[in-house]
Structure formats: C-alpha cells, structure tokens
Amino acid sequence: MPTERAALGRLAPRLRAAGPAAWSPRVWALVAGFAALLVLAPLASLAVEALRGSSGLWPHLLAYVLPQAVRDTVLLLAGVGLVVVAVGAGAAWLVAAYEFPGRRLLDWALLLPLAVPTYIVAYAYLDLLHPVGPIQSGLRALFGYARPRDLVLPDVRSLPGCILLLGFVLYPYVYLPVRALFLMQSASLIEAGRSLGLGPAAVFRRVALPLARPALALGASLALLEALNDIGAAEFLGVRTLTVSIYATWVNRSDLPGAAGIALVMLVLVLALISVERAARRRRHYAGAAQRSRRMSRTRLSGLPALLALGLGLAPVTVGFLLPAGYLAVAALERLGSAGLSAAIVSETLATLAYAGVAALFATGLGLVVAAGPLLSAGGAAWRDALLRCATLGYAVPGAILAIGLMPPLSALDGALDALSRQITGTGLALVGLGSGTALVYAYVVRFLAITVGSSEAGLARVPRSLGDAARVLGRGPGGALARVHLPLTAPAVLSGALLVFVDCVKELPATLLLRPLNVETLATHLYGEAARGTYEDGAVAALLIVAVGLLPVALLLRVSTPKT
Amino acid sequence: MSRHRFALGLLTLAALVCGPARAQAPAPASGEVNLYTTREPGLIRPLLDAFTAKSGVKVNTVFVDKGLAERVAAEGARSAADVLMTVDIGNLIELVDKDLAQPVRSPAIEAAVPASLRDPEGRWLALSIRARVAYAKPGLKGLDGITYESLADPKYKGEVCLRSGQHPYNTALIAAYLVKHGEEKAEAWLRGLKDNLARKAGGGDRDVARDIVADLCDIGLANSYYVGLMRSGRGGPEQKKWGDGITVALPVFEGGGTHVNVSGAVVAKSAPNRDNAVKLLEYLVSDEAQGLYAKADYEYPVKPGAPVDPLLAELGPLKIDATPLVEIARRRKAASLLVDKVGFDK
Fold first, then answer.
1. pLDDT at B25 over 50
2. Gap from A136 CA to chain B (nearest CA, Å)
3. Under CATH, which architecture does the A55-282+302-339 domain have?
4. Which of A188, A229, A464, A558: disulfide with A108, CB 3.0–4.6 Å?
5. How does it sit in the membrane (chain A) (predicted)?
C-alpha cells in the first residue's frame, strides 16, 4: 500500500525515531495496565457501593420495574440497532458503490448528525411535530381541520418515536467504519460475485455486507451503547429504559447502592452480548491482501436512478441533522435579535475545545497502545485480551453513574497527595483531582476509551499479517514491526477514533455537569442550563456552536477515512 | 511550527486544563464565596450579581445537576463549597442527612423566614416557594376549590396530562398525599390518576400547558413559576401562546391547602468562607432578593409580606398546606416506590 504510506510519510519517521525499544512488550503491559486501572477504579468503587446493599431493592425491581424496563430497553435497542445498521450500511454502500450528482456532498453530509446531542434532537422534534407545532398546524390548515383533535397523528413521545430519533442521529457510528471498509474493499470479490450472476442487491447482501461485519459490529455496538445510556431523550420522550430506572433509584430514593447495582448488572449483560458477537466472529477470517490491485469502481447512475440515489442519501441527513439544526438556527436567529450574544460564549467554547482536545489526545494514545497488545505477543496470551477488554468497559456505564464512581478513587488520590505534600513541604494541597479539570478529563477518557481502542483495533486488523511477518523476517522486533509497519498504515483509523472521541466529549453532558471545576461552563452545560429551565431556544446559539465545533472534526473524519487514489 | 513546539503547546494545554493551577484552592477569607448549585445559572445570576454589587463578595459558581451531594461528600474536608443550593425539600434534607450541612444561627434569617420553612437547628432554609398548581382548559367546570384528590375522579378519564411520576416535583406531591391519607388511599388515588392520563407521563411541566392548548387533555399539574415564565413571554412567543391558552387554578388537599415545594440552601459543613456564606444566605432572604426571586423567577417569596409578581398574584391567594415539609421529605422514597408499584410511568 505505497499510496497510504506516502500520505503518512510525515508521521512514519517520527515513529521510527521513537525506536523499537519504546514499544517493547513490557512498556505495553505497563501502559495497558494503567489504562485498565483507570477504568476499573471507578467500576470497583461502584461495586463497593453496590455491596453496601440496598434493602428490598431487587424484589421491588423484579415485581414492578424490570419486566417493563427490560422490555422497553430490549425493544429500543433492537429498533435502534435495525435503524442504524440499515441506514448506516445502506448509506455507506450508496456512496461507495455508486456515482451520481451530489455524491461527494452526501459523502460527508451523512456524518453531520454526529454533531447534535440526542436530547436536543428530541426537544427540537417535539417542538416541530407537536399538534401545536408548525408541521401539524400546517397540515390542519391545508386540509381544513379546525381542531387538533380532528387530526390525530402518532405522537413522537413514544417508543417508536424514540427509536426513530435515536436511530437517525446515531447511524453515523455505523456509516463511518462501514464506508471506510467498503472503500478499501478490492474489486475482485465484488466482481466475482457479479460474474456468478448476483444482482446489485445480492452483491451488497451476500458479499459486501458479510465482509463488513467487523466494522458493522464496532459501529453498531457504539451506537447501541449510546442508546442504552441515553437519559435525556428517553426520559423526555417517556421511554422507561433501565438507565431511566437507575436514575430514579439513585435520585428519588437516595439509593446509590441500588443504582450502582443495577448499572453493574447492566454492564454484565452488555459484556455478555459483546462476547457472544466476538465469539461468533472469531472463527471467521477477514484477511486483507497485501497487494491490492484496484478498488471497486463506482457504478455510474444517471437520470431517475441518480435522483433516487440522491434522495435516499439525503433522507437520513435531513431527519438526523437538517430539520433539527435548521429549527435551532431559526430559533437562534430570533433570539440573537432580542437577547444578543452572551459574552461568556467565547470562554465556554474555548473550555469545550480544551477539555475535549486534551481528553481525545489521552484517549487516543492509550487506546492505540492498548489495541496494539495482541501484535506484541506471539502467543496472544489471554491476559492481554483481558486487559484490552477491561479498558473498554467505561462506555457501557451511564455517564453520571460513571462520574459518581470516579469520585471515591479521585478523593483517595487527593488525600494521598495532600498527605504527601504535608510530609515533604509541611503544607497541604488543594484538591488536585476532584477540584480541577483532571476529574473531567479522566471521566472523558474512561468513558470513550472504547472508541479509540475499537477503531485502533479495527485499523490494525486490516493490516495484512504478511506485512508484519515480513518486517519480523527482516530483523525487526515486535515493537519495531508495530512502529514501522502497522502504525503508519493504521493512522487513518486511529485518527478517526480520536475525532469521534473529540465530538463525543463536546456533546457529553452528565459527567461534564457533575465534575467540572468552579466557574467553568462548557457549551453543553450552558445549553443544558437553558434547557432545564425550559428556554432551550435561548441555548440555541450554544447548540449551534456544539454543532459547529463538531463539524470540523466530522469533515476531517471523512478525509482520514477516505483512502487516497 | 516545529514538532517540539507543537508538543510543548499540547503539554501546556493539558496542564492548563488539568493542572492544579485551576484547582480552586480554598479561597482566602477576603471576599469570595463558592456556590455549588443545582439551580440553573440563568435563574440565579441576577441575584448573585446583585449580592456582589452590594457586598463586594465575589461569587464563584458551579452548576451541577444530579450528584451534588455525592460530589461534596467526595471532596470532603477540603471541599471549596461554601453554599449548596438546590430545589425540592427532599434534596435539601438529603444534604443534611448526609452530614454535608452545618448549623447557622442568624437573627436576620430567623426574622425573615417562618419557622416552617427552615430547620430548627439552622442546617437548611428555604429561599423561595413554588406551588403545584392546576393548568386547565379555559372554561373547564369545577375548577373553583378543586382538590388534588378529585383528579383521580373518573370524570377526568383520558383528560389529565402530567410529567413523570418519578420527577421530584410529582414525587413530593405524592409523598404529601401519603402523609395526609396513608399508603392505601394514596395508592388508590395514584391508580385513579394513572387511569385518567391522556398520554404517557413524561415531558416537562410546560408540556402540560402545550398539550392542553393542543387539545390533547383538559387538565394537569405543574409548577406555579412556569405560568409567569410562559405568560411573560420570557420563554419565547410560542410559550406565551401556551401560557395564555390555559386557565390556572390553585388546588387544595381536602380540608387542607395547596401543596408547595421549595428551593433552598445550606452552608456546607467544611465551608472555607463561612462568614461570606452566611452573608449570602442573609442577602437571599432580604427584601431586595426576595423581590428579585419574585420578579426574575416568578417564585413565591419565603419572607412574609414580600411582593409577589403580578402574574402570580392574579392566580389568587396561596393557602399553603400545613403538612410539614420535613414529613414530605421523609416519605419521598415511599412515594417513589409507589410510582413504580402502580406503573404510573408505563
């Protein structure tokens, strides 16, 4: 793959300069162990909390809460899973396999919903679709209905409504990796399919889709965990998921042990599901060829099919981004006229960028090292795999609960540092962990490490084994092969993980609210402050800035995940 | 940019964000107070600015939603928190129960706040009052002297809109019902109320007004200050339509008064700026601040005789139910369990 190599030529010498020694297995074990410790510390403190016990919790939950909460959660996840896979993979195939006017625009526009927080989409859609909102009012005027009761349409405040909203906002998690995979795919397999008499639909279903399964699994699991841990949209739309009952247990009954218990049970279930999927995939091989002759060429469409393709591609962009963001933009313009721009918005934007940037850096560095583990060991020891899995657990715990779990370890760290400082200097120390931005960066890293580990893993897995073996034959150690062969080839995947984490940090709410230092406001907390008192249109400027801050990484994401031709 | 300078820049950024430079070392006792609040910044900013203008004490704030008590507890003895401000009596009492508050003796506070709205030992006090009122379709019959009990009456079948039963404002109302009528009657009432719902319990208080305007339901319960927020146009032109499209009544418990909840504050147990913390609380119950609460946030003042905003005054005189707030807080958990038991939110 000389072309990619050339594109990443600037990176490679630096890695080479770092030298093979820096990547020795022992260093790896240290870094991966540290990452696992970072993640396990809050989970352990949640487990301790849960063990404190909560009298009568489980009988109550079993009798009155779980039957319905589990049902709603399963239906929500199944529905969201279907939507994100169908929309995400379908859209990816559309832009990878066909050429039509507007395809280049669609290519990146399809990522836009990533930049909008789900709860804001829920608010905007309720405004738009409510019986007194513009759409239904317009319909009534058009068809001559006098009262809202004369024309009753399905309410967006329902499980199906929630599934559609979350699905159309979260599908880019699938679109991004699957699109990259389709673009890397060699033409020969597709053409073999065609020559065996498969039509376009069958090629997609029987050749392209099965080959994309690792990417599909990664994307869908990220989207589903987002959906599972969502609290804002689900609660607002009246869907009682397990996460909603965790919050009710904690907030309304002051029963943190109970809430921690439910969260951990949920974590175990998520882990079980992920292992089942991994086990099912393990027996298959997704070997890429070291020499790839040419990529699949796009089928050119024109006339009605081209128009149809454009329409199909625009639909998810419209639902997931254009409508809610457009609504916000109109609201922001109205407010700007009357209220003006708040001076604090600049410092809020800077704080948002700084926290998200630092967290993305740490998460990426740690994620890359952790994911590289299996390459460093010939035998593929089980403990390496375990460390790797541990590092990704944070994504499966609701944000606020994770933030609560972070506090005791940080508090202990602060205590230890204070004691140390007293010993050495004779004076105490302020709260270095809990009182500064450290807590927040820590929370982001723990929460989103799964993304960078996952994307690094996916990227490394695509490097043909033969290339690594060649480097070893030529005398490089495992670390050297990693630095000089795998890393340069993996950089696009690593970078796209970093950018995803950045966007996720910008949007993150529960941990940001709970852990940031005094006098620090981010765009997300500003927006929430307005939303919580019911003037979220006043926060429209902040919401649009979140979108804007997210747009640049989204554009970059597209560039790094597009193979050069 | 050279690579080294780039790396240096990154490190500086990391240090700025994470470093102890930003850690709020307990501020010197000269003129600062650190406020941890679950109240939205937009609501309390006018009050804090006025306090700073008057006293010269700078107010550092952090707006926290869920988990305020857990954060202060984890920060421990070296926490920067001076004042903790929150809504809902259950949340206030929780701060006391978790031993995060310290007693305050202040003649100014004791003179301003009636004994029913503060802790006899001075560990918490209410700063403003909000009533759980009825929003209804204009012209709906039977609103005069309407009771909370009657909302479970089958005559409202399919006509009631409400937010989640697990929201603290509803949980507190259900807790008050438990105190007044006992477990059995409360459960029957909640089941009746559930049967009357026009849609799944959810959304926010203002959605009750919007859904009534949309003819989805005839009546619902919501907090009093939203009436002012909507009708004043401060929430935007859309919300003004919702506010103007409903009638508001003050329901009572049979043989009692209207259910209210409070916003309030405590002085943090390890407050590094205790004197300024007390100063802030004394200011918040002063005539000036109580007037601001009414004007800026449409809340009822805790201080007897302080003015009520005209938009709230026109709802009629508020007769507060006599059930002690502490009793309501003690039944919060039972109320939350009851909501699950009758499947109110399903």
1. no
2. 10
3. Orthogonal Bundle (1.10)
4. A558
5. Multi-pass membrane protein
Which B-chain residues 32-91 have CB contacts (< 8 A) with chain A?
Answer: 34, 40-43, 60-67, 70-71, 73-76, 78-80, 90
Please, where are the H alpha helices in B255-320? 274-284, 287-297, 310-313
Q: CB contacts < 8 Å between A and B, how many? A: 207
Check pLDDT > 80 for residue A11: no
Residue in chain A lying closest to B90 (CA): A252
Confidence band for A563, pLDDT divided at 50, 70 and 90 = low
Strands, E assignment, A296-425: 299-300
Q: Which residue has the tokens 């029913």?
A: B116
Could you give phi then psi for residue B34, rounded to 5 degrees?
-105, 120
Q: What is the pLDDT of residue A17?
A: 41
Phi, psi of B282 (to 5 degrees): -65, -40
CA distance B127 to A491: 56
Q: pLDDT tier at A254 (50, 70, 90 boundaries)?
A: confident
For residues B58-86, average pLDDT? 93
Give the separation between CA A279 and CA B72, rounded to whole angstroms.
Answer: 43
Rg of the Cα atoms in chain B = 22
Q: From CA A104, how far away is CA A91, in angstroms rounded?
A: 13
CATH 1.10.10.60 given to domain B130-259+315-341: no
Q: Give B80-138 pLDDT, tens digit per residue.
A: 999 999 999 999 999 999 999 999 999 999 999 999 999 999 999 999 999 999 999 99
Q: Give residues 501 to 540 of A whose Cβ lies within 8 Å of B.
A: 510, 513-521, 525-526, 528-530, 532-535, 537-538
pLDDT of A6 above 60 = no
Domains B23-129+262-309 and B130-259+315-341 share a fold: yes
Model pLDDT for residues A130-168, shown as the tens digit of each residue: 888 888 888 888 888 877 777 777 888 899 999 999 999
CA distance B143 to B248: 9
Mean pLDDT score of chain A, rounded to an integer?
83
CA separation for the pair A261, A54 (Å, rounded): 9
Residues of A numbered 448-507 whose beta carbons fall under 8 angstroms of chain B's beta carbons: which are they?
Answer: none
- Domain ranges across chain A: 25-50+341-533, 55-282+302-339
Decide which of 3.30.2000.30, 3.40.190.10, 1.10.645.10, 3.40.1190.20 is the CATH code for B23-129+262-309. Answer: 3.40.190.10
Residue A199: band (very low, low, confident or very high) from pLDDT cuts 50, 70, 90: confident
